[in-house]
Amino acid sequence: MDVPLKDVITILISVASLLLSGYAIWVAQFNHGRLKMTQPTLLCLKREFPGARPKIFLRTCLFTTGTKGHVIENMFLNVRQGHGTYKFDFWGHTENHKLTLGSGLFVGSTGVASDHHFNPRENFCDDFLFIDGEYFIEVFATIVGRKRSEKLMDLTFNVNGLQAAELIQIPTRELYLLWNADTRSYDGHVRHDNKPLDENAIGLAVHEALPNLFTLPPQKNE
Prior knowledge:
Elements: H1 5-29, E1 35-37, E2 42-48, E3 53-64, E4 70-81, E5 84-88, E6 90-95, E7 98-101, E8 105-107, E9 112-119, E10 133-143, E11 150-159, H2 161-169, E12 174-180, E13 185-191
Antiparallel strand pairs: 1-3, 2-3, 2-12, 3-9, 4-5, 4-8, 4-10, 6-7, 6-9, 10-11, 12-13
C-alpha cells in the first residue's frame, strides 16, 4: 500500500518540529555554554598596603555562550616573568561599585563587566618583584560542579627598565597598562600622583578610576 506523498511530507514536518522543539527546550533549560572573557581593557600592577603585597587587577567582561550561565567559585592568575612563575589566587571583584571577596559569582549570557583584583597568598610570594621584561599571565576560573579549572585567556605585556625601577624603588607607584586596539598590545604608563599610604586600610583596596589617565595635560599659556 502506497502512502500518499502529502502524508509523508506531513510526517516529516511533524518530526522536524518535534526535534526543533526539543532543541529549543535544551537550549533554554539545560545549555550552560562555555565561560569566556573579553580582552581586558585595563591592567594594573601595584602594591597593596599595609604589607606591600603585590596586586594585579584587570577590567574585563565575563560571559557565557549558553543561556543558563555558570557560577564561578574562584578565579586566579598564573604570572610568569623572569624570576619564575607565581600564583595570584586571592581574588576579589567589584559588585555594585564595591570591592568584595570573590566567591559565587553568577555569569550569564548577557555578561558581567567588573574589575577583578588578584593577590598572592601571604608568605607565598615574598620574593616577587615587578621586574622588567616580558610577562605571561594565564587567567583561570573554577566553575561550580567541575573539578578542573578552565583557562579563559592568555595575556602578555612588557615592563621596561624605567617602569620596573619605579615600581620596585617606590612602592606607591602603579603601572597602568591600556589595551591598544591598533597594535593589539598594552601600552604602559606609571602613575605619579598616587594617594598617600592609608595605614588603616585592610583587605583588598578599592580601585578608584583616575580620570586624568584619559585626559590631555593642560596647555601652557604663551
